[in-house]
């Protein structure tokens, strides 16, 4: 009997020890970094993420999105504007714009070349008072899925068709989205995507009943490639007058630029794209700049930490992406698909948009690829009835919190902004000023309002 009691006691001790050991192991596992909660805290999670269909005939292709509701909306959500961000590239992920430029949280690294990441609040986020939707466009970019490389769009009409399908699918997710005004924004090669989707929406709306129309509020293009043939012809003059090249180099660069223009006019799209690449390589070699994206920088933008962050399994899991999915911040397949589209202009789309919608063009002062000069050059060639008035409109000094932020020129539906102290990635370089710009433009406040012009010089300092 005593032996049986001893055996039972030993069994209880063994059971207690086993339970304690399992609890200890569980504690170790739960506290072992990295975890999705430590790398991607709950407060940094988007409001919604997921995939949107782009083509009923291609059910395997889908566009990834991440949506952040307004942090402090100043109107009922059913009336709160929604900004839709499209990255350039072509083929670069909008998650880069999210976590490096204008999203509510930015990726930083605790030390140089370290993969110890930290997400920090971005005081200049574009979703302070607006909703903010990031789309990985076209399919094949970022976390978006292309069922086959041949299904990746090869022109702006195809890009716009996919975007329209994705946007209408997103609007159907929640009834309040239907009434919210949509503003499309993007930079660089999105200087083609943004006009394309705006143009497509206006054309589609004309054939749809009022209840089915997309509520387009306007489009914003930052450091955009919109009319490539006109823009490529400005590089030499821009670099020369910036003191970066001499007269002999200017002549060499102008010769190369003329070749791009010639090939573009002939419709030799592949050759024209390749020739433009050579112009940029020449400019890079002549100037010795760390990056043409910002001639004031001694080193390029520190983007690698964002790329590494988005490749983390914990981050993919937090964003609702399959952990096995390969991630490239910029897709070679998408770039190849749109290679022959590169030098084609969408200026006519901007001209059409200006008749029925408002357009914002903004550039960072230091950008040498898609510069202030290049944008002013193509704007002058537009067939728009308001152009003559725009060109003589006063270029006003723009201040944010009493500090000099840049310059605004506006007439009718067109606003042009030069952002001081910024390069190609304006929201990265001037977060608070870019936030003030987009908010005032959408809400038509201050220099972006439609009130009667005040000519008094002293008004700049009131």
TrEMBL record:
Any single biological process term in GO: proteolysis
Coiled coil feature spans: none
Superkingdom classification of source: Eukaryota
Signal peptide per UniProt: 1-30
Gene Ontology molecular-function annotations: serine-type carboxypeptidase activity
InterPro entries from the UniProt entry: AB_hydrolase_fold, Peptidase_S10, Ser_caboxypep_his_AS
One Pfam family named in its UniProt record: Peptidase_S10
Keyword tags: Carboxypeptidase, Glycoprotein, Hydrolase, Protease, Signal
Family: Belongs to the peptidase S10 family.
UniProt name for this protein: Carboxypeptidase
Lineage: Eukaryota, Viridiplantae, Streptophyta, Embryophyta, Tracheophyta
